[in-house]
Amino acid sequence: MITALPQTARATIAATTGGSISWEIIMLLAIVAVATIAVAWLFSSSGSSSD
To answer: Could you give the dihedral angle defined by the CA atoms of residues 31, 35, 41 and 42, in that order, rounded to the nearest 10 degrees?
Structure first.
């Protein structure tokens, strides 16, 4: 499911924008940003308070 998500997102974006690469980059950056925030939040909430 997780592995198929990027392909589904890319297919949806391609269908919506006619295959515009900029939208893929924007989505990729958004996914990376969300993942980074999620990982940082998990690490900070796990008790390692190294500020």
So the answer is: 150
